[in-house]
Amino acid sequence: MDMQVSKSGASPVLRVEGLSKQFEMHHLRRTLYAFEDLNFELGEGEFILLKGENGAGKSTLLRTLYRSYRPRAGHAFYHTKEGVIDLAAAADVDIAVLRRREIGFVTQFLNARPRVAAEEVVAEPLRLAGTPHAEALVEARRWLAAFGVKKQLWPAYPSTFSGGEQQKVNLARALILPQRLLLLDEPTASLDHTARKALVDRLTELKASGVAMIGVFHHPEDVAGLIDREIHLKAIKIEDEADNVVQ
Amino acid sequence: MAALFNTVPRHEPRLMLAEPMLSMRGISKSFGEVKAVIDVDVTVYPGEVLGIVGESGSGKSTLLRMMNLEDTPEAGSYHLSLPDQEERNLFTLDRFERRMLRARHIGIVYQNPHLGLLMGHTSSGNVAERLLIAGNRNFADLRSRARESLQASEFPLERIDARPRELSGGMQQRVQLAKAIALEPAVLLLDEPTTGLDVSVQALVLDTLKRLQQERAITMVLVSHDLGVIRTMADRVMVMRRGRVVEQGLADQIFQDPQHEYTQQLVHAKL
Protein backbone atom coordinates (compact mmCIF):
# COMPACT_ATOMS: atom_id res chain seq x y z
CA MET A 1 0.00 0.00 0.00
CA ASP A 2 1.31 3.47 -0.84
CA MET A 3 2.03 5.81 2.01
CA GLN A 4 -0.90 8.06 2.81
CA VAL A 5 0.73 11.32 3.77
CA SER A 6 -0.93 13.85 5.98
CA LYS A 7 -1.99 16.78 3.83
CA SER A 8 -2.34 19.51 6.37
CA GLY A 9 1.36 19.69 7.12
CA ALA A 10 0.61 19.05 10.79
CA SER A 11 3.58 17.77 12.76
CA PRO A 12 3.54 13.98 12.76
CA VAL A 13 2.26 11.95 15.69
CA LEU A 14 2.30 8.53 14.07
CA ARG A 15 3.95 7.10 10.98
CA VAL A 16 3.02 3.53 10.13
CA GLU A 17 5.32 1.64 7.76
CA GLY A 18 4.82 -1.85 6.39
CA LEU A 19 2.73 -2.88 9.37
CA SER A 20 1.43 -6.46 9.15
CA LYS A 21 -0.55 -8.65 11.48
CA GLN A 22 -1.44 -12.30 11.40
CA PHE A 23 -2.73 -14.73 13.98
CA GLU A 24 -1.10 -18.13 14.38
CA MET A 25 -3.86 -20.42 15.56
CA HIS A 26 -1.86 -23.37 16.80
CA HIS A 27 -4.79 -25.63 17.61
CA LEU A 28 -6.12 -25.26 14.05
CA ARG A 29 -2.64 -25.39 12.54
CA ARG A 30 -3.42 -22.37 10.46
CA THR A 31 -2.63 -18.72 10.09
CA LEU A 32 -5.22 -15.99 9.91
CA TYR A 33 -4.03 -12.96 7.96
CA ALA A 34 -5.44 -9.68 9.24
CA PHE A 35 -3.59 -6.97 7.29
CA GLU A 36 -0.38 -6.66 5.29
CA ASP A 37 2.02 -3.81 4.63
CA LEU A 38 -0.02 -0.86 5.88
CA ASN A 39 1.50 2.59 5.42
CA PHE A 40 0.05 5.89 6.60
CA GLU A 41 0.77 9.04 8.57
CA LEU A 42 -1.26 10.79 11.21
CA GLY A 43 -0.51 14.35 12.24
CA GLU A 44 -1.39 16.45 15.28
CA GLY A 45 -5.10 17.25 15.41
CA GLU A 46 -5.82 14.93 12.46
CA PHE A 47 -8.66 12.45 12.32
CA ILE A 48 -8.51 9.31 10.17
CA LEU A 49 -11.60 7.22 9.57
CA LEU A 50 -10.95 3.50 8.99
CA LYS A 51 -13.31 1.93 6.49
CA GLY A 52 -13.80 -1.60 5.28
CA GLU A 53 -16.10 -4.58 5.61
CA ASN A 54 -16.39 -6.80 8.65
CA GLY A 55 -13.21 -8.78 8.99
CA ALA A 56 -11.14 -6.31 6.99
CA GLY A 57 -8.93 -5.74 10.04
CA LYS A 58 -10.08 -2.31 11.26
CA SER A 59 -10.33 -3.18 14.95
CA THR A 60 -7.28 -5.40 14.62
CA LEU A 61 -5.27 -2.41 13.39
CA LEU A 62 -6.37 -0.31 16.39
CA ARG A 63 -5.51 -3.10 18.82
CA THR A 64 -2.15 -3.63 17.14
CA LEU A 65 -1.32 0.07 17.51
CA TYR A 66 -2.35 -0.14 21.18
CA ARG A 67 -0.28 -3.34 21.38
CA SER A 68 -3.04 -5.53 22.74
CA TYR A 69 -2.02 -7.43 19.60
CA ARG A 70 1.58 -7.97 18.55
CA PRO A 71 2.40 -7.13 14.93
CA ARG A 72 4.16 -9.62 12.68
CA ALA A 73 6.25 -7.02 10.87
CA GLY A 74 6.61 -3.32 10.24
CA HIS A 75 6.80 -0.15 12.27
CA ALA A 76 4.51 2.33 13.96
CA PHE A 77 6.76 5.29 14.74
CA TYR A 78 5.18 7.39 17.46
CA HIS A 79 6.60 10.83 18.19
CA THR A 80 7.02 11.62 21.88
CA LYS A 81 8.72 14.41 23.74
CA GLU A 82 11.59 11.98 24.35
CA GLY A 83 12.00 11.12 20.67
CA VAL A 84 10.50 8.54 18.34
CA ILE A 85 9.26 5.22 19.74
CA ASP A 86 8.28 2.33 17.49
CA LEU A 87 5.01 1.04 18.95
CA ALA A 88 5.48 -2.20 17.03
CA ALA A 89 8.68 -2.97 18.91
CA ALA A 90 8.64 -0.92 22.12
CA ALA A 91 9.24 -2.69 25.43
CA ASP A 92 6.06 -3.67 27.26
CA VAL A 93 6.82 -1.28 30.12
CA ASP A 94 7.22 1.59 27.65
CA ILE A 95 3.83 0.79 26.13
CA ALA A 96 2.41 0.84 29.67
CA VAL A 97 3.96 4.29 30.21
CA LEU A 98 2.44 5.61 26.98
CA ARG A 99 -0.98 4.17 27.80
CA ARG A 100 -0.98 5.90 31.16
CA ARG A 101 0.29 9.14 29.75
CA GLU A 102 -0.83 9.78 26.20
CA ILE A 103 -2.32 6.96 24.15
CA GLY A 104 -5.98 6.19 24.77
CA PHE A 105 -8.16 3.36 23.53
CA VAL A 106 -11.88 4.00 23.42
CA THR A 107 -14.19 1.06 22.88
CA GLN A 108 -17.81 0.21 23.35
CA PHE A 109 -16.92 -2.50 25.82
CA LEU A 110 -16.58 -1.87 29.53
CA ASN A 111 -13.30 -3.12 30.91
CA ALA A 112 -13.61 -1.81 34.45
CA ARG A 113 -13.27 -3.95 37.53
CA PRO A 114 -16.37 -5.23 39.26
CA ARG A 115 -17.45 -3.75 42.59
CA VAL A 116 -16.05 -0.30 41.87
CA ALA A 117 -18.46 2.66 41.76
CA ALA A 118 -19.04 4.30 38.38
CA GLU A 119 -17.62 7.64 39.58
CA GLU A 120 -14.47 5.88 40.83
CA VAL A 121 -14.10 4.03 37.54
CA VAL A 122 -14.17 7.35 35.69
CA ALA A 123 -11.92 9.13 38.19
CA GLU A 124 -9.27 6.40 38.17
CA PRO A 125 -7.15 7.57 35.19
CA LEU A 126 -6.93 11.04 36.74
CA ARG A 127 -5.99 9.62 40.14
CA LEU A 128 -3.32 7.41 38.62
CA ALA A 129 -1.96 10.49 36.85
CA GLY A 130 -1.62 12.21 40.22
CA THR A 131 -4.81 14.27 40.64
CA PRO A 132 -6.02 14.31 44.28
CA HIS A 133 -8.94 11.95 44.87
CA ALA A 134 -11.57 14.58 45.70
CA GLU A 135 -10.67 16.68 42.68
CA ALA A 136 -10.69 13.64 40.39
CA LEU A 137 -14.17 12.72 41.66
CA VAL A 138 -15.54 16.19 40.90
CA GLU A 139 -14.19 15.95 37.37
CA ALA A 140 -15.54 12.39 36.99
CA ARG A 141 -19.04 13.50 37.99
CA ARG A 142 -18.88 16.35 35.51
CA TRP A 143 -18.16 13.87 32.70
CA LEU A 144 -20.77 11.37 33.85
CA ALA A 145 -23.31 14.20 33.78
CA ALA A 146 -22.13 15.31 30.32
CA PHE A 147 -22.66 11.80 28.97
CA GLY A 148 -26.13 11.68 30.51
CA VAL A 149 -25.53 9.12 33.27
CA LYS A 150 -28.14 9.74 35.96
CA LYS A 151 -26.87 10.99 39.30
CA GLN A 152 -28.26 8.06 41.28
CA LEU A 153 -26.05 5.71 39.24
CA TRP A 154 -22.78 7.46 40.05
CA PRO A 155 -22.06 5.51 43.26
CA ALA A 156 -23.39 2.20 41.81
CA TYR A 157 -21.38 -0.57 40.13
CA PRO A 158 -21.30 -0.28 36.32
CA SER A 159 -21.37 -4.07 35.98
CA THR A 160 -25.05 -3.84 36.98
CA PHE A 161 -25.87 -1.18 34.34
CA SER A 162 -27.51 -1.64 30.95
CA GLY A 163 -25.17 -1.87 27.97
CA GLY A 164 -25.75 1.73 26.95
CA GLU A 165 -25.10 3.12 30.44
CA GLN A 166 -21.95 1.01 30.77
CA GLN A 167 -20.69 2.41 27.53
CA LYS A 168 -21.19 5.98 28.76
CA VAL A 169 -19.14 5.22 31.87
CA ASN A 170 -16.49 3.71 29.67
CA LEU A 171 -16.37 6.74 27.39
CA ALA A 172 -16.23 9.18 30.28
CA ARG A 173 -13.31 7.18 31.68
CA ALA A 174 -11.51 6.95 28.36
CA LEU A 175 -11.85 10.64 27.55
CA ILE A 176 -11.34 12.24 30.96
CA LEU A 177 -7.59 12.57 30.49
CA PRO A 178 -6.37 14.61 27.55
CA GLN A 179 -4.38 12.26 25.31
CA ARG A 180 -2.09 12.77 22.34
CA LEU A 181 -3.29 9.80 20.33
CA LEU A 182 -6.77 8.34 20.56
CA LEU A 183 -7.73 4.98 19.08
CA LEU A 184 -11.50 4.84 18.67
CA ASP A 185 -13.16 1.45 18.22
CA GLU A 186 -16.85 2.08 17.42
CA PRO A 187 -17.37 4.36 20.39
CA THR A 188 -20.79 5.57 19.20
CA ALA A 189 -22.35 2.13 18.74
CA SER A 190 -25.62 1.89 20.71
CA LEU A 191 -25.31 5.36 22.28
CA ASP A 192 -28.38 7.55 22.77
CA HIS A 193 -28.54 11.08 21.41
CA THR A 194 -27.26 12.88 24.54
CA ALA A 195 -24.24 10.65 24.94
CA ARG A 196 -23.46 10.74 21.24
CA LYS A 197 -23.52 14.53 21.28
CA ALA A 198 -21.31 14.64 24.39
CA LEU A 199 -18.86 12.29 22.72
CA VAL A 200 -18.69 14.25 19.47
CA ASP A 201 -18.34 17.52 21.41
CA ARG A 202 -15.46 16.06 23.41
CA LEU A 203 -13.75 14.66 20.32
CA THR A 204 -14.12 18.04 18.60
CA GLU A 205 -12.56 19.76 21.59
CA LEU A 206 -9.70 17.23 21.71
CA LYS A 207 -9.05 17.52 17.99
CA ALA A 208 -8.86 21.31 18.28
CA SER A 209 -6.31 20.90 21.07
CA GLY A 210 -4.13 18.78 18.77
CA VAL A 211 -5.07 15.22 19.72
CA ALA A 212 -4.55 12.82 16.79
CA MET A 213 -7.32 10.27 16.26
CA ILE A 214 -7.88 7.17 14.23
CA GLY A 215 -11.08 5.20 14.48
CA VAL A 216 -13.79 2.88 13.29
CA PHE A 217 -17.36 4.18 13.37
CA HIS A 218 -20.50 2.25 12.69
CA HIS A 219 -22.19 5.51 11.73
CA PRO A 220 -19.43 7.72 10.30
CA GLU A 221 -21.98 10.50 9.80
CA ASP A 222 -21.78 11.05 13.58
CA VAL A 223 -18.25 12.36 13.18
CA ALA A 224 -18.50 13.64 9.61
CA GLY A 225 -17.31 17.09 10.62
CA LEU A 226 -14.12 15.72 12.16
CA ILE A 227 -12.80 13.44 9.40
CA ASP A 228 -9.68 14.59 7.57
CA ARG A 229 -8.90 11.38 5.68
CA GLU A 230 -10.15 7.87 5.18
CA ILE A 231 -8.22 4.62 4.96
CA HIS A 232 -9.89 1.65 3.30
CA LEU A 233 -8.89 -1.79 4.52
CA LYS A 234 -9.61 -4.92 2.52
CA ALA A 235 -9.75 -8.43 3.86
CA ILE A 236 -6.74 -10.39 2.68
CA LYS A 237 -7.50 -13.26 0.34
CA ILE A 238 -5.07 -16.09 0.86
CA GLU A 239 -4.65 -18.20 -2.24
CA ASP A 240 -3.62 -21.43 -0.59
CA GLU A 241 -6.35 -21.23 1.98
CA ALA A 242 -8.10 -24.16 0.26
CA ASP A 243 -5.33 -26.35 1.69
CA ASN A 244 -6.66 -25.63 5.13
CA VAL A 245 -10.24 -26.52 4.42
CA VAL A 246 -11.36 -29.85 5.78
CA GLN A 247 -12.29 -32.04 2.79
CA MET B 1 11.65 -16.51 21.76
CA ALA B 2 10.73 -13.79 19.25
CA ALA B 3 11.75 -15.78 16.19
CA LEU B 4 9.52 -18.62 17.22
CA PHE B 5 6.43 -16.42 17.30
CA ASN B 6 6.80 -14.53 14.05
CA THR B 7 6.27 -11.17 15.73
CA VAL B 8 8.34 -8.00 15.82
CA PRO B 9 11.04 -8.44 18.50
CA ARG B 10 10.77 -6.05 21.44
CA HIS B 11 13.32 -3.36 22.29
CA GLU B 12 14.84 -2.61 25.66
CA PRO B 13 12.88 0.00 27.69
CA ARG B 14 13.51 3.64 26.79
CA LEU B 15 10.64 5.61 28.32
CA MET B 16 10.59 3.75 31.63
CA LEU B 17 13.21 5.75 33.48
CA ALA B 18 13.02 3.98 36.84
CA GLU B 19 15.46 1.20 37.64
CA PRO B 20 13.84 -2.21 38.12
CA MET B 21 12.69 -2.80 41.69
CA LEU B 22 13.39 -6.51 41.31
CA SER B 23 15.68 -8.17 38.87
CA MET B 24 16.71 -11.81 38.54
CA ARG B 25 19.09 -13.10 35.89
CA GLY B 26 19.79 -16.61 34.67
CA ILE B 27 18.03 -18.43 37.48
CA SER B 28 18.27 -22.23 37.38
CA LYS B 29 17.20 -24.56 40.14
CA SER B 30 16.98 -28.34 40.31
CA PHE B 31 15.63 -30.77 42.84
CA GLY B 32 17.65 -33.92 42.26
CA GLU B 33 17.02 -34.93 38.67
CA VAL B 34 14.15 -32.52 38.23
CA LYS B 35 14.95 -29.16 36.69
CA ALA B 36 12.39 -26.90 38.36
CA VAL B 37 13.52 -23.55 36.94
CA ILE B 38 15.69 -23.20 33.83
CA ASP B 39 17.56 -20.00 32.98
CA VAL B 40 14.79 -17.57 33.93
CA ASP B 41 15.10 -13.77 33.93
CA VAL B 42 12.59 -11.60 35.81
CA THR B 43 12.34 -7.82 35.83
CA VAL B 44 9.72 -5.90 37.80
CA TYR B 45 9.56 -2.10 37.80
CA PRO B 46 8.43 0.02 40.76
CA GLY B 47 4.66 -0.01 41.21
CA GLU B 48 4.16 -2.79 38.69
CA VAL B 49 2.22 -6.02 39.18
CA LEU B 50 3.85 -8.97 37.46
CA GLY B 51 1.65 -12.05 37.15
CA ILE B 52 3.23 -15.47 36.75
CA VAL B 53 0.96 -18.18 35.38
CA GLY B 54 1.53 -21.82 34.68
CA GLU B 55 0.26 -25.24 35.66
CA SER B 56 1.44 -27.19 38.71
CA GLY B 57 5.10 -28.07 38.33
CA SER B 58 5.83 -25.17 35.98
CA GLY B 59 8.34 -23.74 38.46
CA LYS B 60 6.38 -20.60 39.33
CA SER B 61 6.22 -21.22 43.09
CA THR B 62 9.88 -22.29 43.21
CA LEU B 63 10.76 -19.01 41.54
CA LEU B 64 8.70 -17.10 44.10
CA ARG B 65 10.39 -18.92 46.99
CA MET B 66 13.74 -17.80 45.60
CA MET B 67 12.46 -14.23 45.45
CA ASN B 68 11.64 -14.62 49.13
CA LEU B 69 15.20 -15.91 49.72
CA GLU B 70 13.85 -19.17 51.12
CA ASP B 71 15.78 -21.06 48.51
CA THR B 72 19.00 -20.53 46.51
CA PRO B 73 19.40 -21.46 42.86
CA GLU B 74 22.40 -23.28 41.37
CA ALA B 75 22.91 -20.38 39.02
CA GLY B 76 21.73 -16.81 38.75
CA SER B 77 21.67 -13.46 40.49
CA TYR B 78 19.02 -11.49 42.34
CA HIS B 79 18.90 -7.76 43.03
CA LEU B 80 16.36 -5.56 44.76
CA SER B 81 16.57 -1.81 44.41
CA LEU B 82 17.20 -1.00 48.07
CA PRO B 83 19.24 1.93 49.41
CA ASP B 84 22.22 -0.12 50.63
CA GLN B 85 21.85 -3.40 48.73
CA GLU B 86 21.87 -2.41 45.09
CA GLU B 87 25.26 -3.84 44.22
CA ARG B 88 24.73 -7.11 46.04
CA ASN B 89 23.57 -10.40 44.65
CA LEU B 90 21.08 -11.27 47.39
CA PHE B 91 21.80 -14.99 47.04
CA THR B 92 25.21 -14.31 48.59
CA LEU B 93 23.61 -13.16 51.89
CA ASP B 94 23.95 -15.44 54.91
CA ARG B 95 20.96 -16.77 56.84
CA PHE B 96 20.80 -13.94 59.32
CA GLU B 97 21.12 -11.26 56.64
CA ARG B 98 18.42 -12.95 54.61
CA ARG B 99 16.09 -13.00 57.57
CA MET B 100 16.61 -9.30 58.21
CA LEU B 101 16.19 -8.41 54.57
CA ARG B 102 12.99 -10.46 54.36
CA ALA B 103 11.58 -8.87 57.49
CA ARG B 104 12.31 -5.34 56.33
CA HIS B 105 11.86 -5.41 52.58
CA ILE B 106 9.90 -8.42 51.35
CA GLY B 107 6.27 -9.18 52.13
CA ILE B 108 4.70 -12.51 51.27
CA VAL B 109 1.22 -13.98 51.31
CA TYR B 110 1.02 -17.75 50.97
CA GLN B 111 -1.89 -19.82 49.77
CA ASN B 112 -1.63 -21.79 52.97
CA PRO B 113 -1.98 -19.43 55.95
CA HIS B 114 -0.17 -21.94 58.18
CA LEU B 115 3.03 -21.02 56.32
CA GLY B 116 2.64 -17.33 56.97
CA LEU B 117 0.97 -17.12 60.38
CA LEU B 118 1.33 -18.35 63.91
CA MET B 119 -2.12 -19.87 64.22
CA GLY B 120 -2.22 -19.68 68.02
CA HIS B 121 -1.15 -16.04 68.37
CA THR B 122 -3.58 -13.16 68.07
CA SER B 123 -4.04 -11.50 64.70
CA SER B 124 -2.52 -8.24 65.90
CA GLY B 125 0.30 -10.26 67.51
CA ASN B 126 1.07 -11.88 64.16
CA VAL B 127 1.43 -8.50 62.51
CA ALA B 128 3.36 -7.01 65.45
CA GLU B 129 5.80 -9.91 65.34
CA ARG B 130 6.89 -8.82 61.88
CA LEU B 131 7.54 -5.28 63.18
CA LEU B 132 9.38 -6.69 66.18
CA ILE B 133 11.78 -8.77 64.03
CA ALA B 134 12.53 -5.63 62.05
CA GLY B 135 13.62 -3.89 65.24
CA ASN B 136 10.57 -2.07 66.60
CA ARG B 137 10.48 -2.54 70.40
CA ASN B 138 7.89 0.00 71.52
CA PHE B 139 4.76 -1.88 72.62
CA ALA B 140 2.23 0.91 72.11
CA ASP B 141 3.70 1.68 68.72
CA LEU B 142 3.69 -2.00 67.73
CA ARG B 143 0.04 -2.32 68.62
CA SER B 144 -1.05 0.82 66.83
CA ARG B 145 0.91 0.00 63.69
CA ALA B 146 -0.43 -3.54 63.63
CA ARG B 147 -3.92 -2.11 63.95
CA GLU B 148 -3.30 0.32 61.10
CA SER B 149 -2.05 -2.43 58.86
CA LEU B 150 -4.97 -4.73 59.67
CA GLN B 151 -7.35 -1.89 58.94
CA ALA B 152 -5.69 -1.22 55.57
CA SER B 153 -6.23 -4.92 54.78
CA GLU B 154 -9.92 -4.46 55.64
CA PHE B 155 -9.72 -6.84 58.55
CA PRO B 156 -12.60 -6.28 61.03
CA LEU B 157 -10.91 -4.52 63.94
CA GLU B 158 -13.27 -5.96 66.55
CA ARG B 159 -11.58 -9.30 65.85
CA ILE B 160 -8.06 -8.01 66.24
CA ASP B 161 -7.41 -10.32 69.23
CA ALA B 162 -8.85 -13.41 67.58
CA ARG B 163 -6.37 -16.13 66.67
CA PRO B 164 -6.02 -17.07 62.99
CA ARG B 165 -7.18 -20.61 63.74
CA GLU B 166 -10.52 -19.12 64.85
CA LEU B 167 -10.87 -17.13 61.61
CA SER B 168 -12.28 -17.93 58.18
CA GLY B 169 -9.93 -18.50 55.23
CA GLY B 170 -10.59 -15.04 53.82
CA MET B 171 -9.84 -13.38 57.17
CA GLN B 172 -6.65 -15.39 57.55
CA GLN B 173 -5.50 -14.08 54.17
CA ARG B 174 -6.22 -10.53 55.36
CA VAL B 175 -4.02 -11.10 58.42
CA GLN B 176 -1.24 -12.42 56.17
CA LEU B 177 -1.65 -9.38 53.96
CA ALA B 178 -1.55 -7.00 56.96
CA LYS B 179 1.64 -8.67 58.14
CA ALA B 180 3.15 -8.51 54.66
CA ILE B 181 2.51 -4.81 54.13
CA ALA B 182 3.15 -3.66 57.71
CA LEU B 183 6.64 -2.44 56.83
CA GLU B 184 5.89 -1.14 53.33
CA PRO B 185 7.97 -3.77 51.58
CA ALA B 186 9.97 -3.12 48.42
CA VAL B 187 8.13 -6.03 46.89
CA LEU B 188 5.02 -7.98 47.86
CA LEU B 189 5.01 -11.64 46.82
CA LEU B 190 1.69 -13.42 46.48
CA ASP B 191 1.57 -17.19 46.05
CA GLU B 192 -1.96 -18.22 45.02
CA PRO B 193 -3.35 -15.75 47.60
CA THR B 194 -7.02 -16.49 46.91
CA THR B 195 -6.88 -20.12 45.80
CA GLY B 196 -9.16 -22.24 47.92
CA LEU B 197 -11.38 -19.37 49.03
CA ASP B 198 -15.08 -19.16 48.14
CA VAL B 199 -15.57 -17.20 44.95
CA SER B 200 -17.31 -14.32 46.72
CA VAL B 201 -14.59 -14.11 49.40
CA GLN B 202 -11.92 -14.36 46.72
CA ALA B 203 -13.41 -11.36 44.92
CA LEU B 204 -13.37 -9.27 48.11
CA VAL B 205 -9.77 -10.16 48.92
CA LEU B 206 -8.76 -9.26 45.36
CA ASP B 207 -10.59 -5.92 45.69
CA THR B 208 -8.55 -5.16 48.78
CA LEU B 209 -5.31 -6.15 47.06
CA LYS B 210 -6.09 -4.03 44.03
CA ARG B 211 -7.02 -1.01 46.12
CA LEU B 212 -3.89 -1.26 48.26
CA GLN B 213 -1.74 -1.75 45.20
CA GLN B 214 -3.12 1.39 43.57
CA GLU B 215 -3.11 3.56 46.68
CA ARG B 216 0.41 2.66 47.70
CA ALA B 217 1.91 1.78 44.29
CA ILE B 218 3.11 -1.52 45.78
CA THR B 219 5.39 -3.56 43.53
CA MET B 220 3.91 -7.06 43.36
CA VAL B 221 4.72 -10.46 42.00
CA LEU B 222 1.62 -12.62 41.86
CA VAL B 223 1.77 -16.33 41.18
CA SER B 224 -1.44 -18.08 40.26
CA HIS B 225 -2.80 -20.80 38.04
CA ASP B 226 -6.10 -18.88 38.05
CA LEU B 227 -6.19 -16.71 34.94
CA GLY B 228 -9.09 -14.66 36.30
CA VAL B 229 -6.97 -13.58 39.26
CA ILE B 230 -4.05 -12.71 37.00
CA ARG B 231 -6.30 -10.78 34.65
CA THR B 232 -7.78 -8.74 37.50
CA MET B 233 -4.45 -7.87 39.05
CA ALA B 234 -1.49 -7.98 36.67
CA ASP B 235 0.02 -5.30 34.42
CA ARG B 236 2.37 -7.78 32.77
CA VAL B 237 2.28 -11.55 32.64
CA MET B 238 4.94 -14.25 32.42
CA VAL B 239 3.81 -17.69 31.29
CA MET B 240 5.86 -20.60 32.64
CA ARG B 241 5.93 -24.19 31.57
CA ARG B 242 8.28 -26.96 32.69
CA GLY B 243 10.65 -24.51 34.33
CA ARG B 244 10.92 -22.10 31.42
CA VAL B 245 9.28 -18.82 30.50
CA VAL B 246 7.48 -19.58 27.24
CA GLU B 247 5.96 -16.15 26.75
CA GLN B 248 5.63 -12.78 28.41
CA GLY B 249 3.76 -9.60 27.60
CA LEU B 250 1.28 -6.96 28.66
CA ALA B 251 -1.63 -8.62 30.43
CA ASP B 252 -4.19 -7.64 27.79
CA GLN B 253 -1.91 -8.91 25.02
CA ILE B 254 -1.39 -12.27 26.72
CA PHE B 255 -5.16 -12.69 27.01
CA GLN B 256 -6.20 -11.22 23.63
CA ASP B 257 -3.32 -12.28 21.41
CA PRO B 258 -1.40 -15.15 23.03
CA GLN B 259 1.48 -16.27 20.81
CA HIS B 260 2.74 -19.53 22.24
CA GLU B 261 0.77 -22.70 21.68
CA TYR B 262 0.70 -23.37 25.41
CA THR B 263 -0.54 -19.86 26.25
CA GLN B 264 -3.26 -20.22 23.64
CA GLN B 265 -4.34 -23.49 25.27
CA LEU B 266 -4.38 -21.83 28.70
CA VAL B 267 -6.37 -18.80 27.56
CA HIS B 268 -8.83 -20.83 25.51
CA ALA B 269 -9.34 -23.25 28.37
CA LYS B 270 -10.44 -20.32 30.51
CA LEU B 271 -12.83 -18.67 28.07
TrEMBL record, chain A:
<keyword id="KW-0067">ATP-binding</keyword>
<dbReference type="GO" id="GO:0022857">
    <property type="term" value="F:transmembrane transporter activity"/>
</dbReference>
<feature type="domain" description="ABC transporter">
    <location>
        <begin position="14"/>
        <end position="245"/>
    </location>
</feature>
<comment type="similarity">
    <text>Belongs to the ABC transporter superfamily.</text>
</comment>
<dbReference type="InterPro" id="IPR017871">
    <property type="entry name" value="ABC_transporter-like_CS"/>
</dbReference>
<keyword id="KW-0547">Nucleotide-binding</keyword>
<dbReference type="GO" id="GO:0005886">
    <property type="term" value="C:plasma membrane"/>
</dbReference>
<protein>
    <submittedName>
        <fullName>Alpha-D-ribose 1-methylphosphonate 5-triphosphate synthase subunit PhnL</fullName>
    </submittedName>
</protein>
<dbReference type="Pfam" id="PF00005">
    <property type="entry name" value="ABC_tran"/>
</dbReference>
<dbReference type="GO" id="GO:0005524">
    <property type="term" value="F:ATP binding"/>
</dbReference>
<dbReference type="InterPro" id="IPR003439">
    <property type="entry name" value="ABC_transporter-like_ATP-bd"/>
</dbReference>
<dbReference type="InterPro" id="IPR027417">
    <property type="entry name" value="P-loop_NTPase"/>
</dbReference>
<dbReference type="InterPro" id="IPR015854">
    <property type="entry name" value="ABC_transpr_LolD-like"/>
</dbReference>
<dbReference type="InterPro" id="IPR003593">
    <property type="entry name" value="AAA+_ATPase"/>
</dbReference>
<dbReference type="GO" id="GO:0016887">
    <property type="term" value="F:ATP hydrolysis activity"/>
</dbReference>
From TrEMBL, chain B:
<dbReference type="GO" id="GO:0019700">
    <property type="term" value="P:organic phosphonate catabolic process"/>
</dbReference>
<comment type="similarity">
    <text>Belongs to the ABC transporter superfamily.</text>
</comment>
<dbReference type="InterPro" id="IPR012700">
    <property type="entry name" value="PhnK"/>
</dbReference>
<dbReference type="Pfam" id="PF00005">
    <property type="entry name" value="ABC_tran"/>
</dbReference>
<keyword id="KW-0547">Nucleotide-binding</keyword>
<dbReference type="InterPro" id="IPR017871">
    <property type="entry name" value="ABC_transporter-like_CS"/>
</dbReference>
<keyword id="KW-0067">ATP-binding</keyword>
<protein>
    <submittedName>
        <fullName>Putative phosphonate transport system ATP-binding protein</fullName>
    </submittedName>
</protein>
<dbReference type="InterPro" id="IPR003593">
    <property type="entry name" value="AAA+_ATPase"/>
</dbReference>
<dbReference type="GO" id="GO:0005524">
    <property type="term" value="F:ATP binding"/>
</dbReference>
<feature type="domain" description="ABC transporter">
    <location>
        <begin position="22"/>
        <end position="267"/>
    </location>
</feature>
<dbReference type="InterPro" id="IPR003439">
    <property type="entry name" value="ABC_transporter-like_ATP-bd"/>
</dbReference>
<dbReference type="GO" id="GO:0016887">
    <property type="term" value="F:ATP hydrolysis activity"/>
</dbReference>
<dbReference type="InterPro" id="IPR027417">
    <property type="entry name" value="P-loop_NTPase"/>
</dbReference>
